[in-house]
Amino acid sequence: MSLFEKLKNMFRKAPEPAKVPEIPAKAENTRLKKACKECGKMFSYDPAWEFVPNYCKDCKQKFKKEKEEKQRSGAPRKIKRKCKECGNFFTFPNTLAHYPSYCPNCRKRHKEAQKAKYSRKKESNQGSKG
Q1: What is the pTM of this model?
Q2: Tell me, what's the pLDDT at 123?
Q3: CB atoms within 10 A of CB 126
Q4: What is the Cα–Cα distance from 100 to 60, expressed in whole angstroms?
C-alpha cells in the first residue's frame, strides 16, 4: 500500500451513521396516563420511573388507612415498624392515636436538636457589651 493510498483512506468521508430520531424537549418531560385498577380514575406517571404504578394516589391512601384500621382492631398488641431515619426496627402499642415513623432514639435526638436550634435562653457575653 502506497503512502498516497494510506492518506486517501485516512481522509475519506466516513459513512454517515444511522440517524436516530431526536426527541423534542417536551416529549422527554411528558408524563404518560394510566387508569387506576381500583377506581378507574386516570392518573399520570413518569416513564423514567423504575416501575409503573397500578393505583392512583387516592386509592393508595385509602389502602393505607384500611391497613392501619385493621391493625388497630382487635386486642391490644405491639406493632413492629422500621425507623425511617436509622433503619432499626422498633415496637409500639396499637392503641396509639398516631403511629410513629421514627424510633424513640431518633425522636429524642430530633427533639433535642430542635430545642437547641430554637432555644429561648440568651447566651451570656453576646447580649451585653461593656
Answers
A1: 0.45
A2: 57
A3: 7
A4: 19
